[in-house]
Design a protein that fits this description.
Elements lengths: L8 H4 L12 H41 L3 E10 L8 H10 L4 E10 L12 H20 L1 H4 L2 H8 L1 H35 L4 H12 L23 E2 L8 E2 L5
Antiparallel strand pairs: 1-2, 3-4
Helix pairs in contact: 2-4, 6-7
Length: 249
């Protein structure tokens, strides 16, 4: 009777195991696509912040180099002298003498009120601007774990549908495994008919000549390519140097 477990290496990479804390390949692909969607928004924020800093710099230069200060000083003295000692002279001195004035003025003004008063964004304001985007990126990273519950929630509300899905997946994997084994047999047969390369012959000779080098010159599984372990099974044909892992064997 054919069984699916243990899964092959190629089959394991296409499944999501809910109990694993590490991100798995299908989740990584979805997560990368979600993060790529955040890049246009990130570029837009960089453009807006750069434009804001550019405008602030231009206005600061205008404010610094266009400042003009005016200083105006003036003085005014009026004195009326009436000569003589007659009664009329005394009367004129008493009345016209009130016109004697002395006035000094000093006026300082500038165009500061007409100049722009730019205010640059602080570091905290920049941080608050990019904080929602950072939260969005964290949600893209953390959403893979709630997504693992979708199958369990659907199975709770639709158990018959879940059973149908499991049977469909089981039969699909059996068909894929049959096709995989058929294709791999053909590939191994074609590879066996080809003469081995110089590097392969040298490695095999070194492994036979110095057995202690086998831990460094490890072979790989002919089907899935996993590194050689003590559980690997060599081909029973003495003329064949192929090695297979436990699951492929």
């Amino acid at each position: 009777k054919q069984t699916l477990l243990p899964l092959l290496r190629e089959e394991t990479s296409s499944f999501i195991f809910p109990c694993k804390l590490a991100l798995q390949r299908p989740e990584l692909q979805h997560m990368v696509m979600e993060l790529l969607k955040c890049i246009p928004l990130l570029l837009f924020l960089f453009f807006v912040c750069g434009l804001d800093h550019f405008i602030f710099t231009i206005l600061s230069i205008i404010q610094h180099h266009s400042f003009i200060e005016y200083s105006y000083q003036s003085s005014h003295h009026l004195s009326v002298n009436v000569m003589g000692t007659s009664l009329m002279a005394e009367l004129l001195r008493s009345t016209i003498g009130a016109l004697n004035t002395s006035f000094e003025s000093e006026v300082e003004t500038s165009n500061l009120a007409c100049l722009p008063q730019p205010t640059g964004m602080t570091r905290q304001q920049y941080l608050n601007t990019f904080l929602p985007l950072g939260a969005l990126a964290l949600l893209c990273l953390a959403q893979v774990y709630p997504f693992r519950l979708r199958r369990a929630i659907a199975a709770f509300y639709f158990p018959k549908r879940e059973k149908t899905r499991v049977l469909f997946l089981y039969n699909k994997l059996l068909r894929q495994r049959k096709n995989f084994l058929y294709l791999q047999r053909g590939r191994v047969a074609r590879q066996a008919r080809q003469p081995p390369g110089l590097g392969t012959l040298l490695r095999q000779w070194c492994r036979r000549r110095w057995p202690w080098l086998r831990r460094y010159l490890r072979q790989r599984c002919t089907l899935c390519g996993t590194p050689e372990t003590p559980r690997h099974q060599p081909c029973p044909n003495p003329d064949c140097s192929a090695s297979y892992c436990e699951s492929c064997w």
